[in-house]
Amino acid sequence: MMPASNIIPLFVALPLAGAFLLPLIGKKVKWAPDLTGGVFTLALMALSLVSVWVVNQNGTLVYSVGAWKPPIGIAMVLDGLTSFMLVTVNLVAFIIAVFSINYMEKYTSKWKFYSLFLLMLAGMNGVIITGDMFNLFVFLEIASVASYALVAFGTEKHELEAAFKYAIMSTVASLFVLLGIVFLYSYTSTLNMADMAQVLAAKGGGDITVMVTVLFVMGFGLKAALVPFHAWLPDAHPSAPAPISAMLSGVLIKSLGIYALCRILYNVIGMSAEISSILLVLGTLSMVIGVFLAIGQWDFKRLLAYHSISQIGYVVLGIGLATPLGILGGLFHLFNHSVFKSLLFLNSGAVEYSTGTRDLKEMGGLAEKMPVTGATSLIASMSIAGVPPFNGFWSKLIIIIAAVQAGRYGYALWAVIASVLTLASFMKVMKYAFFDRLKKKWDQVKEVPVFMKLAMSALALICVLGGLLLVGAVKTDFLSQAADALLEGTKYAAIVFKGIG
Amino acid sequence: MSREHEKGMSLIVKTITRLTVGIIFLYGVYIVTHGHLSPGGGFAGGVIIALSFIHLILAYGKEVAFKKLSEARASIWESTGAILFLSIALLGFTGGYFFLNFIPKGEPFRLFSAGIIPLCNIAISFKVGAGIFAIFVALILLKLDVGKKK
Amino acid sequence: MSIYFLCLVLFVIGIYCIVRKRNVIKMIIGVIILEYAVNLFFILAGYRVNGRAPIFSSGEEIKNMVDPLPQALVLTSIVIGLATTALLVGIAMRIYEKYGTFDITKIRELKG
After folding, report:
1. Which end of chain C has less neighbouring CB within 10 Å, N or C?
2. In this predicted model, what pLDDT tens digit does every residue of A213-223 receive, in sequence order?
3. Which residues constitute the domain of residue C15?
4. Structural domain includes residue A404
């Protein structure tokens, strides 16, 4: 019987196969791109749920590509944090793929869209499951280049300008990451993450480790849109087509930015008090500056993009606390943010599909004409603002309690202030876009087609049930495993080497 | 091929191109297939193969070059190369591991040795050669229509 | 040591081009120079004194080789750089078609 670890390379091989098949069959057969996109993402989502079960049964699994044992070969590692991120990414990707069956009718050449989408998904999955440093860089670049092309997909004026600025800044960030990898390789003479952790623990840190940490915080911080590296996000996310904005804001900045940063800072270099305070300061700055800049916005998607910066600040604050409760809260908020921010961007896409505008001052009272969009938008806004009993409330509560427990009262205060301001901002959005009186020109507006309604309702259901992830057995299987994998710190190396056998 | 005096470059360039394009293509194929014995491999050989077609475009103009390799065929070659590479990797599952070298390896330093490495090199050269040719054609054929400033 | 310092100078020149130049094409050339500097630094980090090229051939004794791993990784990195550059140039040409200029200070419609 084949060992269970054989499913690991499928996470990368399946979307790559889909992306390469589409140029051959997508031009001739009309319904091929939709079917391929939907089927492959459904298979990936099912595989990621299986992977959670597999990690529960067997512990950390290591897969040596090509039967070359690490540290000579490339290893793919499946532990608690990996399966958690895989579920987040693939679940949201499946729902967005279903949404874009209807939405992308307005653009030409749907097969190009699905091909690039599957390529970006392959890159993100690759970043999550790899255990080798340079492999991380290669998959990071695959996902990034696919996302530059997707932001510029409509080739209108604003999309091209935003894509160009995003591409230049993100390329410079990737080169900083590569420079960090070069320094680490020349200091430890190995590329495998577990081996590197062991060598760094034996040789001691020193100046090289400090410089590498700074380079990685700059590089991955720009991918994750932390302040002061956030300047590309308010231009890139509104200009992209709505499913791509949801994909970028929902999973790309988390998988490429936050996950890679945490994995390297916790498991390879090892957490210390200085790194913790850097993460705390950056997280708080992002939280506060993001929400202050978001209040004055009148463009729906630009407002959502600024709120992304703020919520990522919450995640980094939780993870930077380096206590078990803090990491649990940070990771839970990461999952929640993927769900409700994607839902909000899909809502704005639905509004744009029906009315053709993104300006809040022109909308009004759309809830009577578009009931599904209005209801899901209300659920998502209450989640992001932290209203009980939706999922955002629980994760923000855990982060604030963890901050108070660790004795950092100032950070907890800023978190509460940012939460109140988020609530105010979304009350404005709800009033102007959905409630209030219906304007005359929106009399002919209809509800969006069936796939878009299905996608939005699925995400809203997860928002409502999200609080249940903290209950009993589900918590130990899903969230606690992820938090424990980070808390192991540099003992990750011993676990990986035991798993190779 | 040398009758079109109106398009393309001068007669000297066209004659030399006619003589050397085949040699450049053959050199690229040599670098691809000997990738496991000497420096080179799929990517470098693929670039040289693409250069032979680009040489045709530069010397003769795009109609002649498109008779040899049109844009649609280039797209098919590219996808074929990628799918071939991925299926070689997935066939490693028969030996138990992704990307396993499952073909019997001969003695070192001979042409038919080293398992799947020459096959992977050939697949990569398809993709890279067709890809670079397609990038060149896309960049030079864009007709600009300036003056649409709003 | 002076070789690594020269790589750093090349890196800084690349960043200067991206930050200070106003033409879009010059910014792309800045990105290319930046990639070049990092790749060069990577290969130089693999140099061993009195090493020879890491290629086996039949019937020869190998005593001292430079590190072959950075050479393979830099090959991958060069390919990635090529793909990024091709995409950037494509976007830049479309920008010229829509905006009519290559000057980055005039391409400024997104604000706020």
Report:
1. N
2. 999 999 999 99
3. 2-48+65-99
4. yes
Q: Which of A148, A172, A178 sits opposite C18 (nearest CB)?
A: A172
Q: What is the pLDDT of residues A16-26, one digit of tens each?
A: 999 998 888 88
A333 is a domain residue: yes
> If you measure CA to CA, which chain C residue comes closest to B147?
C100
C28: CATH: 1.10.287.3510
Looking at the domain assignment, is residue A262 inside a domain? no
Interior angle at CA C31, CA C28 and CA C35, nearest 5: 145
Chain-chain contact of B43 with C97 (C-beta, under 8 angstroms):
no
Contact yes or no for A156 and C112 at CB 8 A: no
| Chain C contact for A295 (CB, 8 A cutoff) | no
The rounded distance, in Å, linking the Cα atoms of A243 and A85 is 20
Are B101 and A66 an interchain contact pair (Cβ–Cβ within 8 Å)? yes
Chain B residue closest in CA terms to C75:
B43
| pTM (two decimals) | 0.92
Task: Please list every residue in chain B whose beta carbon sits closer than 8 Å to the beta carbon of residue A158.
Answer: none
Q: Which residue has the tokens 């997104």?
A: C110
- Domain count of chain A? 1
ipTM value: 0.94
- Amino acid at position A469, single letter: L
Q: Give yes or no for residue B150 having a pLDDT over 70.
A: no
Nearest to A157 among C45, C88, C109 (CB): C109
pLDDT above 90 (res A368): no
**What is the number of domains present in chain C?**
1
Strand boundaries in C12-107, DSSP class E: none
Q: Is A145 on the interface with C (CB under 8 A)?
A: yes
Give the number of beta-carbon pairs within 8 Å between A and C. 81
CB of A344 within 8 A of CB of A358? no
Render the burial of A434-452: b for 16+ CB within 10 Å, e for the rest.
Answer: bbeebeeebeebeebeebb
| Span C1-46, pLDDT tens digits | 888 899 999 999 999 999 999 899 999 999 999 999 999 999 998 8
- Give domain status of residue C12, yes or no: yes
Residue A181 tokens read as 């990898």
Q: Which domain holds residue A299?
A: 272-470
For residue A165, what are the β-bridge partners? none
Q: Where are the domains of chain B?
A: 11-140
